[in-house]
Amino acid sequence: MxxxxxxxxxxxxxxxxxxxxxxRTNLFDR
Length: 30
Prior knowledge:
The protein is mostly helical.
């Protein structure tokens, strides 16, 4: 599942959308 988070991080860098908060929420949520 690590590749999924890497892809999300990459998208965050390109689009500028706050994926980081979404990732952080998901990581800490579980």
